[in-house]
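Recap from last week: sequence in, structure out.
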Amino acid sequence: MHMGKCQVFIFFIISLFVNQKTHSQPFNLKGLIKGCDTATITLSYYDDEYKIVTDSVYTTNGMFQFNGVIVNASLGRIVSNVRNKNSYKSLIIDTGYSSFEYDYNNIDKLKFQHSKSNQEYADLKKAILPESQMEKHLNDSIKSNNDRLLNGNIDINCANVKLSDLESQYKKVRAISYKYEKDYITNHPNSYIAIWLFMSYGFKDIPWGDSVVQKLTESVKVSSIGKIIIQNYKINSERLAAVYPFHTLKVNARAPEFTIYTKKDSLELKNLKGKVVLLEFWSLNCLPCLQFNPSIEKIRKKYEKKGFEVLGITNYDSSMFISLSNYIQKNKLSKWMHISTDASVKGVSNQYLYGQFDEYTSDAIPSTIIIDRNGHIVYKHVGFETDDLKEFEKIVADIMQQ
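Predicted structure tokens:
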């Protein structure tokens, strides 16, 4: 009986070893620098043991090559030292043979051949090329506007109006690229390019990031690039969740408790059972917050007789009460329960209460939570775009009918 268990255990270990080795394959990466015969090229990448390997070679007539062993695909970085000037480029290393070339003074326009992953990346960038070009144009215009202001070549009011318009345009264009790339990541669980892009998005959006990681294929998860990125993602998620637990809150889960203090008493989430509660974390210097607040008030008025409560939460001390009061009166938000997480306001005012929302702490505003009549989270969102309103209004309408 013991012998049987031993045999099974040994077989399991051997299977893991064999399985790992079947994924480990060599790569041969050849390069050509056009316009320069002599240079030093350094390649750093993760090998088949998920360790960083750094290799340097000298070019011969502008040509060079690297060889190594990786698991399926790896994240690499080329450093090109030409005439004592370094230039850098990140890339995906596929197994097997691939090659690339670039002009010695423009490594950003590196061109690949025989590389499935890098061709995929080129196709992706081509799909959003108009948006990328517009982003660059708007960035240049913003910089030019700021330079003119610093040099006194434009009136400050004109500069601010122009800057606001440029930033608004940039935000709209960037949103198109952002959505395209994020959808690409979601819909390509077997792509090494998708996991590469994931570093730019998933590390900031934990619930979405968790869903992406769960859907990844095994070949991506065990790859030299995938395993390292997933490990870093998990470390980052744990750190972020410890400081900003808002990211870990899940729709349909029970909402964490919070406490609000009046001058005489305290109020907790459980005391609001039977009501639909919207928590809105905002600030006076947050433009998306100020754009969203009127829509929240419109919803509140529509459902106020059906038990819809809005808790507007800031982190201001009492020195901001006058500014807050002016804004609240002007925008007719006096029916909200206004709360600050700054302990110095405790017991100071009946209009601005102190509240503890430690389990809802976020690194961005506006942050919005809707809690149903039974204390479950039914909506969670960070930021505000006009396009968000339709979904927001539908969710509120659905929950208010229950």
